Amino acid sequence: MSKVSSENLHKSTLSVYSHLMEQFNPGLEKLVALGNSYVKAFQALAVCSEAYFSAVAKMGDQALHTLSSHSLGDVLIQISETQRRLTAEMEGVFQWFQVEVLQAMEKNIKLDEEYIEGSRRVYELEVRNQAEALEKQLRRGAYRDSLENSDYMIYLRQSQQEILKEEERRYRFLAEKHCGLTQSLLFLVNKTGTSLQQKADGWKEKVNETRGSRTPNHLDQEVQLRGSVGSLLQTVARDEDMSWARREQLALGGVPSRAPSPLPNRSRSSSVGESLGLGGGRPMRALVSHPSSSNPKLLPFSRGETVTVLVQEP
């Protein structure tokens, strides 16, 4: 019975050594390789994230300069900035993971391989020596105590307990490192979670507010276009009036005259304006083109063309 017990102890101890050398350490090496790939994948993700949210910020900047979507542009810019800060925080977590977990595991693998191999050689050598010494004592009849209390059995039991502790210590190391990773992620969530939730709620509220807001319709755009064209033509009219005044003063020697202008376009436009209840037409040179496709209700003209502006009399 003692012989069977000693064999079981010995086989159990050797199986733990084999497990550490053939399964645990290779598994740890695989974890390191996968972890490095994980870090590289996140780094690539961070680069893509930066490019994407920079583009989002540009779209938001475009919206800031529109009449309809200023508040939406502000939301897009804030979302972009928040996401970029969050990515930077995550980069810090991954740097910690690479140094404190992956590099530590890689270092322990190399040291552990030498330690486990050396420890197993010492164990197997000591087991042979203890077994040979016990066998000699039994042959001579010099050993009278129970085999359970022999130095051989005591050594087997102690060796088994020691290697089990070594096995536990390695798995504890692995668990502690990943507990640290979880704590780092939890710290980041607690740091940013509440404020991010508040910001997200605020952004959603701003977006929903725009659903009920009045956006410029076709009539608004037409009025705006008329106002822009009218303002431009009024500016040109003032310049033309000053030019006519100078020409008339030169032609008449500064003497006031009630004679009609010799310009045919000016007299014809005046008669048309009078028939429509408008003041005399003023020929002006257009600074910009106005194609017929932009607004069918206004006559088309090209840049540099002379047009007549009819001003309604008060």
From TrEMBL:
Pfam families: IMD. Residues 253-305 are annotated as: Disordered. Residues 256-275 have a biased composition (Low complexity). GO terms for biological process: actin crosslink formation; actin filament bundle assembly; plasma membrane organization; positive regulation of actin filament polymerization. It comes from the Eukaryota. SUPFAM superfamilies: BAR/IMD domain-like. One of its GO terms (cellular component) is cytosol. Residues 1-225 form the IMD domain. This is BAI1-associated protein 2-like 2. It comes from Nothobranchius furzeri (Turquoise killifish). The lineage of its organism: Eukaryota, Metazoa, Chordata, Craniata, Vertebrata.
